Structures are given as structure tokens and as C-alpha cells.
Amino acid sequence: MTLRMKSFLPHGLIGRALLILVLPVVTLQLVVSLIIIQRHFDGVTRQMSRTVRVEVAWLLSEVEAARDLGAAQAGMGRIASGLGLGAALPATGAPPAQDQRLWWDLSGREVGTVLHEGLAGLEVVDLLTNPREVQLWLRTDFGLMRVDVPRTRVTASNPHQLLVISILASVVMTGVAYLFLRNQLVPINRLAQAAEAFGRGQTLPYKPRGALEVRAAGKAFLDMRARIERQIEQRTLLLSGVSHDLRGPITRLKLGLSLLPEDEETEALQADVTAMERLVEEFLAFARGDALEETVTAAPSEVVQELVGRWARRGEAVTLGDLAPIGPMRLRVQAVERALDNLIGNGLRHGSRVRVMTLASERFLRIVVEDDGPGIPQARREEAMQPFARLDAARDPNRGGGVGLGLSIAADIARSHGGELRLGQSEALGGLKAELLLAR
Q1: What pLDDT, in 10s, does the model give residues 224-234?
Q2: Residue 179 forms part of a structural domain
Q3: Which of 157, 223, 395, 428 is the most exposed place for a label (fewest CB within 10 A)?
Q4: Domain end marker among 153, 186, 208
Q5: Mean pLDDT over residues 318-333, rounded?
Q6: Residue 418 has pLDDT above 70, yes or no
Q7: For 437, phi and psi rounded to 5 degrees?
Q8: Rounded to 5°, angle at Cα 224 from 218 and 230
Q9: Tens of pLDDT along 43-75?
Q10: Distances, alpha carbon 345 to alpha carbons 38, 194, 431, in Å
Q11: Which stretches make up the HAMP domain (predicted)?
């Protein structure tokens, strides 16, 4: 029941604010107006009906006092014409079996009640046959008499005019409230857009505006963004220095080993230095991230084709699958290529074939990398995306494996593009299926 109600409620902040602020006020205004109007016009209707009752009672007494039908008709006609009433004696046709009125005619109910209270000979009050008249059927010594009273004589004209005015005023004020709320919520929307863009690595120009609370939130966001950018810049400078300082000794080690006589011990040392260089590169890539890389407009299909082509030119068994027809989108091309390199490298390390393809939905671009390796058990897929996670000995860096950062780097890059990394089972190749989701 709660879920069914939520589906009909507005999802936007403007709609919810209007629902919270305007709906109770409008409802209260309409209910109060309806009660006051109904009570007021009920009183007016009773007063007017009493006046008509006195007039009809006089007409009825004149008819009852007549000696014969002719005198009764003459007296009835004289009085009825003077009072502006219609009268017929004896009345033609048959009266309704009971009082008649529309079910929503509340004032008509009061008319019937008042007239029946003071007219002993009144049989039926008919407000339905002719909506412009009140037909009264009365019993006399000379038969049934019908008196036609204009409806305006017993009820006020336009009794719900005030209610209509209240409804129109409520509609106008709701529109005014909507405009004011919309103007107040524009700064919140801009703040949300700036925060979302910063989460994707884009820095949009933003200036705090709006109410004091919104300005305070905007200033806090700008301070936070500045701190994060400073930390990223300092970390990048630090890592650049570390990278420079480490590359020198490693290069000297490689040069020194290349001058030594080639034997098993030298080859082992060279392999260790190569592994050390690879580990340093992966550590730096993980620590550097992609926050400071430039976001450009690029065609995803061209990026994937170029990357797969590079792997194929190296002689690796990397093939290209179907490519979704999607136009250019905002990407950090180097970061996406680094994530795909990690996924393809993992696939070739644990399998013999890798296939890359792209799929597109309304919100996301999915780059799928599949291999024919052993895959990752479902219970350990979340663990596999944690930094430095190595699930078995085959992934030990001392045995040719990685350092446990490939999937973690790919997941961070996907998150920085507003998406995520998903791991599953490849139906086509039987190994691991890694889906890199990028927000469009």
C-alpha cells in the first residue's frame, strides 16, 4: 500500500514542497469556505422560504374561504398575480408521489423542510420537473391546487460563487508559490550539478546563490572542492618525485645487469628488476588515479578499436566483438584505456583468448571484456576488486601474477565516470566477464 502511494507522489523537490506547503492550505481554505458558504446560504434559503410560505398560506386561506370553485379561482388569480406566483385550480396532471430534487441540491432540501413545516395542506414540493420553478401541490376543498414559485424567490442566485472565487484564488496562489519555489530551488539544482560534475572529474563554474542555508552549503562545497584539488595536486607532485627517484636506480640496475655476463643468475636478477619496475608502475598508477586527467569528447568505439588493435599487433589473442552505435561522449581517454589494458591483461594472464565489445543503454555505455580463463567465484568477486587483493597463488607477483591492483584501478576509473565495474561469468568464452559501465 505504501509503495503504491509513493508511485503517485511527486519525486522532485518542487512537487514535494508544493504538496507539503500548498495542499494543506488550499484544502483548509476550501473546506472552511464550503462550510461557511453552505451555512450562510442555508440561512438565506430558510428566510426566503418562510416569506414564500406566508404568501402561499395567504393564497390557500383565500381559496379555502371561497363559497364555490368560481370564487376560489377568482380570489386565487387576484392574489397570485399580485404576488408574482403561478396558480392552477384544479391542477392538471398528477403530482409526483413524493418530493423531488437533485441529490446535490442542498438548498432545495431546506426549501422543502421549511414549506412543509407551515403548510398543512402541502402534499408535494417538486424542484426537479422545472429547475427554474418550485412546484407546490396543495390539497384544498376544491381539489388539488398547484402553485408555481420562481426558484429565485426561495434560494439565492449563484450560491457557490464565493466557492468558485476561492478555488480560482487557490489556483493563482499555487502558481505564485510554484514560481517562488522554483526560483529558490534553482541554486540547489546548480549545486547538485556542480557536485555531480566534480565527482566525474569536471570542474564547473559555480557561485553560491539563494537562501542563506543554500549559500552556506555552496560555500562548504567550494571549500571541499578546493581542498580535494589541493590534495590531489600535492599527491601528484609527490608521486612525480617518487617516480623520478625510483626510475633512476632501476634504470641503473638494468644497465648494470646488461653489462654482466649472461648466465642463469643474471637472467634471474634481470627478471626481478623487470618485475620491480612493473610493480612500481602499477603502484604509481593506482596512487595517481585519474582525477587530474583531462576530460575530452571522444567516440568510445574508436577508443576500443584502437586499443584492441594495439594488443592484436603485439600478437595477442584479443578480438573485437560487436560495437554499439553510440556517438561521442565525455571521457578521460587515457584513464579508460588504462582500465581496459588492466582488464585485457588480466584476461590474457589467466586465459588464452579475450574478446572486447560495447553495449549501450539510455544511461550507460558498457564495455565488456571476456576471457576463457577460470573466472572468479561469485562469492569472491567483491573481494577481487579490493586493492592488493590476490585470490590465489597464480596471481602472486613472484609467480608472474599481478599485484592485485588491476581490477581496483578499473573500478576507480569507472566510478570517476559515474559508473561501476561489474564482474560476472562469460557465457560465450566461459571465463570472467568484466563490464566497465560509463555514464553517458
Answers
A1: 888 887 877 77
A2: no
A3: 157
A4: 153
A5: 84
A6: yes
A7: -95, 125
A8: 140
A9: 788 888 888 888 888 888 888 888 888 888 888
A10: 80, 35, 14
A11: 182-233
Q: Does some domain include residue 56?
A: yes
Half-sphere exposure of 31 (CA within 13 A, CB side): 6
Cα distance between residue 427 and residue 110, in whole Å: 79
Q: Which long-range contacts (CB under 8 A, 24 or more apart) does 190-196 make?
A: 191/217, 191/218, 191/221, 194/221, 195/221, 196/418
CA distance 123 to 147: 12
DSSP string, 45-90: HHHHHHHHHHHHHHHHHHHHT-SSHHHHHHHHHHHHHHHT-EEESS
Nearest residue to 322 (alpha-carbon basis) of 282, 273, 369, 357: 357
106 burial level (CB within 10 Å; 0-12, 13-18, 19+): middle
Does residue 283 lie in a domain region?
A: no
State the CB neighbour count (10 A cutoff) for residue 265: 10
Q: Which residue has the cell 579508460?
A: 336
Average pLDDT, the chain: 79
> Contact 208/187 with Cβ under 8 angstroms?
yes
What is residue 418's three-state secondary structure? coil
Burial of 185 (0-12, 13-18, 19+ CB in 10 A): middle
Domain membership of residue 165 (yes or no) is: no
How many angstroms from the chain centroid is the CA of residue 89? 70
Residue 253 and residue 311: Cα distance in Å, rounded?
A: 29
**Is-contact 383 391, C-beta < 8 A?**
yes
CA atoms of 213 and 31, how far apart (whole Å):
35
Q: How far apart are CA 104 and CA 113, in angstroms?
A: 16
CATH of the domain at 303: 3.30.565.10
Helices 212-259, 161-199: axis angle to 10 degrees equals 20
Please give the C-alpha separations between residue 322 and each of 237, 354, 355, in angstroms, as whole numbers.
41, 14, 10
**Domain total in the chain:** 2
Rounded to whole angstroms, how far apart are CA atoms 205 and 190?
A: 10
Chain centroid offset of residue 370 CA? 35
Under 8 Å between Cβ of 183 and 14: no
Q: What is the pTM of this model?
A: 0.50
Maximum C-alpha span of the chain: 153
